[in-house]
Amino acid sequence: MGLEAVFGDTILTTQIDKVVNWGRKNALWPMPFGLACCAIEMMSTVAPRYDLARFGAEVFRFSPRQSDLMIVAGTVTYKMAAVTKKIYDQMPEPKWVIAMGACASSGGIFDTYATVQGVEEIIPVDVYLPGCPPRPEALIHAVMEIQKKIDTESVIDE
Amino acid sequence: MTAATTQQVMTINMGPQHPSTHGVLRLILEMDGETVVTATPQIGFLHRGVEKLAEHKTYHQFITLTDRLDYLAPMSNNLGYVLAVEKLLNIEAPKRSQYIRIILCELTRISSHLLWLATHALDIGAMTVFFYCFRERETLNDIFEMAAGARMNLSYVRIGGVARDLPDGFIEKVREFVNDFPARIRDYETLLTKNKIWLMRTKDVGVISAEDAINYGLSGPSIRGSGVKWDIRKSEPYSSYDEMDFIVPVGQTGDVYDRYNVRMEEMRQSNEIVRQAMDTIPKGEYITDIPDVAMPQKENLKKSMEALIHHFKIVTEGICPPVGEVYACVEAPKGELGYYVVSDGTKNPYRIKIRPPSFVNLEGLQKMIEGRLLADVVAVIGSLDIVLGEIDR
Amino acid sequence: MADVSTIGKKLKQKFPQAVTKVKTFRGELTISIDKDYIGRVARFLHSDKATDFDYLSDLCGVDKSRLDSSDTFEVVYHLYSLKQNHRVRLKVEIPASNPSIDTVTNVWKTADWHEREAYDMYGIIFEGHPNLERILTPEGFEGYPLRKDYPLKGRQPNSLREVYRKGEE
Ligand code: SF4
């Protein structure tokens, strides 16, 4: 943010950290990268019963340029890999990634010629979410883990 | 400036990351102004190599993979595959399990159509329907969870029957849903069926004639929308569907609106089928007692040594059907879902070819949107109800 | 379901050289056709009023090399008649060394993608197909994944994988 150049690691910047992190973690804008079955559970998570809005993360943006949390929900194939990377690159910093489901985390049950064995081959992942598909509660948990992670970050590190 | 005077064709890329392509479909559109000149679908972004993987699995193991083809209707996929294997083995599932299969298949049909309605309406701009549909879907997911232990991807069907009997309280829960549901459909219909905007966006859009629909190999609601009265549950009944009383709704013009109406009516019919199946479900076994091919009943594992041995053998070694080839098809929510299974007598299938309805239905897209406006593309894709999981396999 | 057993006989009368084998297994009729005749047979079955196979359910390839060590591929057609409500399966053997066969897209339009898929997975060339390109695998993919000699976890050459990951510029 350029602040640290002026103030260094002082009380002012640590307090700013708190404010900025509070804002970031309570207004996550996910980019729903729905690829396969997991995407349906992701939709259930925003739908009435689980209502991701309670955690401030309901504004699903299909444009990567407006979002800061990428939820990779589904199997990433080699054909899709380039697209995945491109979309990740288009997201502005700071950004986080949830690998939702066994497929995105590790290739899942599809250990074949066509499937990328885990999306971390292509982009960095912050939270791995097991399950095939993970339940909506689990996705909410993953979002909360991201929020915790945001809390520990500092504008100075950027 | 009119399009005709400029004669400039512009190429637009749509997808594979686009909310209205229902997954990872990519369309290359050649546009003349707002009019679509050609539309070329590009698929394969979710090609996971399922058919190759099948050749390395045992017959039982492959059931879990079928869920992940059309993940909106896992039961139909399970059933189609298992019916093919049962045909190969020349066995039949007990009556009770056939009825259980009907109940769950029809519930998945409703669930799949609900998701179609939710996303189709959302694409066209009606947000409320999405929330309503997902409310009902959650109830259905609870029901599936009761029976199979999972909200999605049930893997509930087994060769020769189903995984376990219906749990206590299941029928009551389903009955509650079945009694409620007609009123819910009426809710959706008040929002859409006579809605001016809806009519303008769907009427006479994406028309395909019956003749073309047959030639392009369309199936399911997509062909019935064009007035072809063909439903595999009626024409080649499987799993006791001949004992159910239901009608097959058809459209007339074959536009988006007709396909919408067909699916809405199908939900009602499915609801009635579930009711009938629940009323008449016979008592008896839920899986056949043929030790070499069918899993033993779970309760017997605790009591009988033979059952334990058979279970162990089936799980570790698998089953070896006779040499031969069969094709079995079911009426999945999206159309004719076929499995062509070739056996060489070993425990692994020699070849499994899946005939996915969405794959073939999508082929008709080109025909439907040529000469239409860009905005219609979204409506037409929605009306085909595609699932990329089974298109790409 | 109508009785399908007559179809084999009928076809034999019409094209004596074309039909190499007729077999029924589990109530399903399978007719093996000679490679050179598939176009004519398809058109006949499609237009004849008694058979009336107006609907092509499925078309796929099979690699027979491990089944009878014959080093042949097979193209399998599943036909259905909406009016007569009957099904038949046609099988055509082609040598793996020269896997080519006539297209049936001029009879059933739906064959287009099916044939592209068979080409993608087995490398079977369909003569006269309007646009025979790979359909499921990515551009630049090497090999034909469903052939029996292609390994399940066959990875693409590293250079190509880099392209997939980074995206072509
Ligand atoms: S993890 Fe399971 S549910 Fe999720 S995309 Fe993969 S196969 Fe589908």
TrEMBL record, chain A:
Reactions catalysed, as given in the entry: a quinone + NADH + 5 H(+)(in) = a quinol + NAD(+) + 4 H(+)(out)
Entry note: cofactor: Binds 1 [4Fe-4S] cluster.
Keywords assigned by UniProt, alphabetized: 4Fe-4S, Cell membrane, Iron, Iron-sulfur, Membrane, Metal-binding, NAD, Quinone, Translocase, Transport, Ubiquinone
Record's subcellular location: Cell membrane
One Gene Ontology biological process: electron transport coupled proton transport
Entry membrane topology: Peripheral membrane protein
Primary site of residence: membrane
Residues involved in [4Fe-4S] cluster binding: 37-38, 103, 132
GO cellular component, one term: respiratory chain complex I
Cofactor(s) the record lists: [4Fe-4S] cluster
E.C. code: 7.1.1.-
Highest taxon in the source lineage: Bacteria
Gene3D superfamilies: 3.40.50.12280
Domain NADH:ubiquinone oxidoreductase-like 20kDa subunit: 37-145
Any matching Pfam family: Oxidored_q6
Xref: InterPro entries: NADH_UbQ_OxRdtase-like_20kDa (IPR006137), NADH_UQ_OxRdtase_20Kd_su (IPR006138)
UniProt-listed NCBIfam families: nuoB_fam (TIGR01957), PRK06411.1 (NF005012)
Function comment: NDH-1 shuttles electrons from NADH, via FMN and iron-sulfur (Fe-S) centers, to quinones in the respiratory chain. The immediate electron acceptor for the enzyme in this species is believed to be ubiquinone. Couples the redox reaction to proton translocation (for every two electrons transferred, four hydrogen ions are translocated across the cytoplasmic membrane), and thus conserves the redox energy in a proton gradient.
Assembly notes: NDH-1 is composed of 14 different subunits. Subunits NuoB, C, D, E, F, and G constitute the peripheral sector of the complex.
Family: Belongs to the complex I 20 kDa subunit family.
Name of the protein in question: NADH-quinone oxidoreductase subunit B
Organism listed in the record: Candidatus Scalindua arabica
UniProtKB/TrEMBL annotation, chain B:
Name of the featured protein: NADH-quinone oxidoreductase subunit D
Catalytic activity, as annotated: a quinone + NADH + 5 H(+)(in) = a quinol + NAD(+) + 4 H(+)(out)
A Pfam family recorded for this sequence: Complex1_49kDa
Function: NDH-1 shuttles electrons from NADH, via FMN and iron-sulfur (Fe-S) centers, to quinones in the respiratory chain. The immediate electron acceptor for the enzyme in this species is believed to be ubiquinone. Couples the redox reaction to proton translocation (for every two electrons transferred, four hydrogen ions are translocated across the cytoplasmic membrane), and thus conserves the redox energy in a proton gradient.
NADH-quinone oxidoreductase subunit D domain ranges (all copies): 123-393
PANTHER family the record matches: NADH DEHYDROGENASE [UBIQUINONE] IRON-SULFUR PROTEIN 2, MITOCHONDRIAL, NADH-UBIQUINONE OXIDOREDUCTASE 49 KDA SUBUNIT
SUPFAM superfamilies referenced in this protein's UniProt entry, alphabetically: HydB/Nqo4-like
Bilayer disposition of the protein: Peripheral membrane protein
Organism in which the protein naturally occurs: Candidatus Scalindua arabica
Sorted UniProt keywords: Cell membrane, Membrane, NAD, Quinone, Translocase, Transport, Ubiquinone
Domain of life the protein comes from: Bacteria
EC number: 7.1.1.-
InterPro entries in UniProt: NADH_Q_OxRdtase_suD, NADH_UbQ_OxRdtase_49kDa_CS, NDH1_su_D/H, NiFe-Hase_large
Automatic annotation (TrEMBL), chain C:
Family: Belongs to the complex I 30 kDa subunit family.
Official protein name in the record: NADH-quinone oxidoreductase subunit C
Record's GO cellular component terms: plasma membrane
Reaction it catalyzes: a quinone + NADH + 5 H(+)(in) = a quinol + NAD(+) + 4 H(+)(out)
Gene Ontology molecular-function annotations: NADH dehydrogenase (quinone) (non-electrogenic) activity; NADH dehydrogenase (ubiquinone) activity; quinone binding
Translocase is among the record's keywords: yes
Coiled-coil ranges from the UniProt annotation: none
EC number per UniProt: 7.1.1.-
Domain of life of the source: Bacteria
Taxonomic lineage: Bacteria, Pseudomonadati, Planctomycetota, Candidatus Brocadiia, Candidatus Brocadiales
Database matches in PANTHER family: NADH DEHYDROGENASE [UBIQUINONE] IRON-SULFUR PROTEIN 3, MITOCHONDRIAL, NADH DEHYDROGENASE UBIQUINONE IRON-SULFUR PROTEIN 3
Listed InterPro entries: NADH_DH_suC (IPR010218), NADH_quin_OxRdtase_su_C/D-like (IPR037232), NADH_UbQ_OxRdtase_30kDa_su (IPR001268)
